[in-house]
Amino acid sequence: MMGTTSLLCLALLCSSMAFTACVAAGLRLELTHVDANRTVEERMRRAMARTRQHRLASTDAVAAPIHWMKTQYIAEYVIGDPPQRAEAIIDTGSNLVWTQCSGCSSSSTGCFDQNLPYYDPSQSSTGLAVSCGDAACSLGSETQCASDGETCAVSTSYGAGDIAGVLGTETFTFGSSEKVTGLDFGCILATALTRGSLDGASGIIGLGRGGLSLVSQLGETKFSYCLTRYDTDTVDQSHLFVGGSSAGLSPSSGAPVTSAPFLQNPDEDPYSTFYYLPLTGVAVGDTTLDVPASAFALRQGSSGQWAGTIIDSGSPFTTLVDVAYQALRDELARQLSGSLVQPPEDGLDLCVARGKVVPPPLVLHFGSGGGDLMVPSENYWGPVDDATCMMVFRSPSESTTIGNYMQQNMHLLYDLGNNVLSFQTADCSSM
């Protein structure tokens, strides 16, 4: 973990104000796939590369998935007045809203490359620093009082490395007119992140359960997103909805809704941030895998750290705990035995000739009063060269993560007031 003391002289601004955040009628954010201008094959290869990078980084991390470094979708927005453009990965597995600031370019610890200029707080009339005594400085584990006793410092670790800076408030504008004033965010001045982990985005919008997440700061109890497919020739815009009527599902569509209750989170950081689901089993077509429900359950793993099943907007591909992955692999190999072809790349396990075979759907069984979610083959198999390959991988930890590739063309509603996640099949490009 890098130190933050030397970064505090680069404080956001010298003034401070009490924390406040307001929004009129919910937010609607347009999401752009980071590889939208690339071919289908290039998108799949880059996503697989992030998965392999994630798996290597995770072996030395906690027994929980790494979320943000694999994210494929970013939100476009502007900060301050006059507005400065920024892009951020949306991440249900972390809390902090942050962007790299202009001090990054001269920091001895360096910052990662991004597509847009760094945010410059000196050019904004609406940016304010958060002082050590402000309520916002005690909202989460990502912030702490600096050694000068005045500055609210930001420092946190991800699977891909560390970030550090100061906490400020700013006006964020989403879409054409939806302004959020006084939003607390990390003005990041130094990073030590794995190269390419954010794919040119400026930072992250955290949607987790912590006090500094976008959802918590807005005081909303619902948010939803609908992700368009990224293994097609064109990538349409996706959307994230926070609060307001747009966050709900569409009963008029006629598409069935599958719901599952969220499990009670552990109190320890970072496990208190995640959205755990009561997954109890997986079926391949009509065949239920012989995997005990305990393999997916929220529990303390062999290392003493928490493990379970997490839904994540920030991971491209689903990763299953070892016993479940092997059972899935074996059953698919049995059902597709006469159609399997040699995988075109390392890291892939099962492949069939592209356009020749349609693999069976998956069914995710959710206990504790939850329903069954049918996952079509195109949501867990993807094109690579002349083949179509299984895009589910072995987890590097004792946790299972449901990634965003499996969530495509589904409208997901996080109803925090009722503690329920709902899935509804949708044409996300039309929303």
TrEMBL record:
Matching InterPro entries: Pepsin-like_plant, PEPTIDASE_A1, Peptidase_aspartic_dom_sf, Plant_Aspart_Prot_A1, TAXi_C, TAXi_N
Similarity section: Belongs to the peptidase A1 family.
Keywords: Aspartyl protease, Glycoprotein, Hydrolase, Protease, Signal
Domain of life according to the entry: Eukaryota
GO molecular function, one term: aspartic-type endopeptidase activity
Gene3D superfamilies: Acid Proteases
Native organism taxonomy: Eukaryota, Viridiplantae, Streptophyta, Embryophyta, Tracheophyta
One Pfam assignment: TAXi_C
Position of the signal peptide: 1-24
One biological process term in Gene Ontology: proteolysis
Designated name of the protein: Peptidase A1 domain-containing protein
